[in-house]
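Page 37, continued from 36.
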């Protein structure tokens, strides 16, 4: 069994900020379909109207849950999303964020700064 990476909440927030994108574009990767996604994607999918509405889903529920993408099919390229959430029986996440009260919260893996910036640029039409 793999050892899960753990971060404090402050370390997690710092790592998101280190992606070099506005908070609506903080990016994570679904552990099942490997789709890179951001708060902006969740907003576009109808999960909420702004960052505050979708923050609870970011890194916990795949954007595909809100676009009705369905189950991930093996061999399908990332990008479509799937119906995965970390609130179920199977614990496949590799990252846990520890809050100041000591609670371990499962989270999707963080996208690299390069992945986050490329993802944002693909959504906003910007070029690097």
């Amino acid at each position: 069994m793999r050892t899960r990476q753990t971060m404090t909440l402050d370390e997690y927030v710092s790592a998101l900020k280190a992606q070099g994108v506005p908070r609506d574009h903080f990016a994570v990767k679904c552990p099942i379909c490997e789709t890179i996604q951001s708060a902006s994607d969740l907003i576009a999918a109808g999960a909420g109207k702004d960052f505050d509405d979708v923050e609870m889903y970011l890194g916990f529920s795949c954007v595909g849950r809100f676009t009705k993408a369905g189950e991930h099919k093996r061999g399908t390229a990332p990008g479509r999303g799937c119906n995965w959430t970390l609130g179920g029986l199977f614990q496949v996440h590799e990252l846990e964020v520890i809050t100041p009260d000591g609670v371990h919260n499962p989270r999707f893996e963080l996208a690299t700064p390069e992945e986050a910036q490329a993802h944002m640029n693909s959504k906003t039409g910007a070029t690097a």
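The chain has one domain: 5-124. Flag for discussion at group meeting. Residues 5-124 form one domain.
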